[in-house]
Amino acid sequence: MIGIIYSDKYLLHAPPFYHSENPERLSAIINSINTNSDLKRRIQFLEPRSASQEEIRLVHTEKHFNYVKNSIQAGKHVLDSGDTYANKHSLDVALLAAGGVLTAVDVVMNEKFLRIFCAVRPPGHHAESNRVMGFCFFNNIAIGAQHAIEKHKLERVAIVDWDVHHGNGTQEIFYNSSEVLFISLHQHPLYPGTGMSSEIGIGEGKGFTMNFPLPPRTGGKIYLSIFNEKILQRLIDFNPQLLMISAGFDAHRDDPLSDMKLVENDYFQMTKLLNRLADEIGIPIVSVLEGGYNLTALGNSVCKHLEGFIHEPNQMTESSLCES
Ligand SMILES: [Zn+2]
Q1: The domain containing residue 14 runs over which residues?
Q2: Residues pairing with 187 in the sheet
Q3: What DSSP element (H or E) covers 288?
C-alpha cells in the first residue's frame, strides 16, 4: 500500500488574484487518483498533523518564522517581491504542509508504510532558512529530512529534486551538511537561476550537493540517462537510510512555467528506478509535491509517479503504462 498525505484544509490557502499555484492543483491530483480504480485500491489516505514552531525551526531561523507569522496575521497578501501570496489561512496551511511531511516521516520510520506521497501545498523547496521565495513559506521536505535526523536518529537522508526549478532552498539549508545528499535536475536558464554543476556543497557538505542544470527542451531520455549513469550510483555510494523526492511535475511538456519535454511515462520510469534502488537497499521513500501547473498533466503525472511505487509488473504491463 502507498500512503497519501492529504487534507481538504490544503485547499484553504488560495490566491487573492490569479496565480498558477492554486487549490485546483490538489483537487486535480485527488480527482485523478480517485478515478483510477487500479491505483485507488493500492493507496490509503493519511491525515496530516501540523508542524510546531520548534519543528519549523529545525531548518528555519526564528526571524523567518516570525516574519511569516506576523505578515500573514497582519493581513499581508504578498510576502516577497510578488510570487508568494497569502490569505488568512496561509499560516495554518503552511504548518499543515510541513506537518504532512513530518507525519509521513514518522509513519515510514514506524514501518506502517514504506512509500508515501505527500499531496501538500503550499510547496516548499524554494524556501531558504531565512527567506520566503517562489510560492514557498516553509521548506517542507527539508523540515522532514532534519526531523528524520534529529527525532529518528538517521545519519544519511537523500533528497532527489526533479521539479523543473532548482531547489535552491533545500540546497541552501543543507549546503554544509554531509547528512543530507541533495540532488537536483532542473531547467537552466530558469527561475531561480541557481543550481550550477559547480555548486557541490562546502565544508563537511562538499560533495553532498549535486546539480544537473539542463537546457530547455530536454526530454525523458536525457533525464533517465542521468539517473542511470550518475544519480543511482551516487545514491548507492551514499547509502541513505531514507530517500525523499521533491516531486514537482512542472518539467512536463504541457507545463506553462517551463520548456521541458517530459511526459507522464517519464515520471513513472524515474520513480521505478528510485523505487527499485530503495527496495534493494531496504529503505522507505517519502515523496513530497512541489510544482506542476498544467492541471491535466499534473493529475496524470502524479498517478504515474504512484504507479512507479507498485511492484507486481505482471499486473501492469509496460505498454498499459505508456502515455501517448
Ligand atoms: Zn517548480
Answers
A1: 2-321
A2: 214
A3: strand 285-289
Residue 291 Cα to ligand 1 midpoint, Å, equals 4
Q: How many domains does the chain have?
A: 1
- Tell me the CA–centroid distance for residue 258 and ligand 1, in Å: 8
Q: What is the DSSP string of 2-50?
A: EEEE--GGGGS---SS--SS-HHHHHHHHHHHHT-HHHHTTEEEE---P
Residue 320 has what pLDDT? Answer: 43
144 has pLDDT over 50: yes
CA distance 134 to 293: 13
Please identify every residue whose CB atom is under 5 Å from ligand 1, which is an ion. Answer: 163, 165, 248, 250, 291
Residue 153 alpha carbon to ligand 1 centre in Å: 30
CATH assignment of the domain containing 197: 3.40.800.20
Output the CA 191–ligand 1 centroid distance in Å.
9
Asked if residue 122 has a cis previous peptide bond (ω within 30° of 0), the answer is yes
Is 126 considered catalytic here? yes
Output the nine-digit C-alpha cell for 24: 485546483
Give every CB contact of residue 56 below 8 A, 6+ residues apart in sequence: 65, 95, 98, 138, 143
In the predicted structure, residue 323 carries a pLDDT above the cut 70: no
End-to-end CA distance of the chain: 27
CA-nearest of 85, 5, 86, 14 to 50 is: 5
pLDDT in tens, 49-89: 999 999 999 999 999 999 999 999 999 999 998 899 999 99
The model scores a pTM over 0.85: yes
Q: Which of 13, 126, 252, 305 is catalytic?
A: 126
CA dihedral of 251, 254, 255, 258, whole degrees rounded to 10: 60
21 C-alpha to ligand 1 centroid (Å) = 10
Dihedral, CA of residue 102, residue 105, residue 107 and residue 109, to nearest 10: -140
In the prediction, which pLDDT does 177 show?
98
CA distance 127 to 150: 20
